[in-house]
Amino acid sequence: MASSRRLVSAATSNVLADGFAASITTLRPASGHERAELIRDVIDAFRRLRNSIERFDRMLAQGGGAQSVQAAQAGASLQPLLAALSRRGGLARFTRQRELKRAIRDARRLDKTRDALFSDVLSLDTEALRRTVGELDRLDASFVGLGVEHVLEQHANALAATNAASAANAGHTSRNEAATAIAAALVREPAA
């Protein structure tokens, strides 16, 4: 923390006759570059999370025939998107409701962090920024995983339904063929 308090001068100042500096010098913490990178990583992680939630919402909306929530600005709150996703998950009979609700709850909690990102408390604490990036990435992976599992389950259900329909049609066709053969045999051999 002491190194972040140390200030680095960007230029030397020339003192005029009246005692004022002739040039303006910028002072910034020595860890400014690392902080800037971490803040960029947090912003990128929020953007990836927002994109994953929007894709998940669109996927559930297409399956249910509903309209998805319009894409909002990248800096906007996730709350409306999460509320829509929560409703849609219930309507789509999403099988892993417990995991989806937990991911939505965690996303709501982290969305509040977005508002505090530029406060001195969070932006000066590089370890907190690293933890936030890790949590956002974990949550993003959770939403992507839930979405992929849902798609695979939908395809497996559709394939099973198609196979069942094919088997039923094949059984129905076999019964029709058997009935036709019996009727033909009865026509050829009159009853005694």
TrEMBL record:
It comes from the Bacteria. This is Uncharacterized protein. It comes from Paraburkholderia unamae.
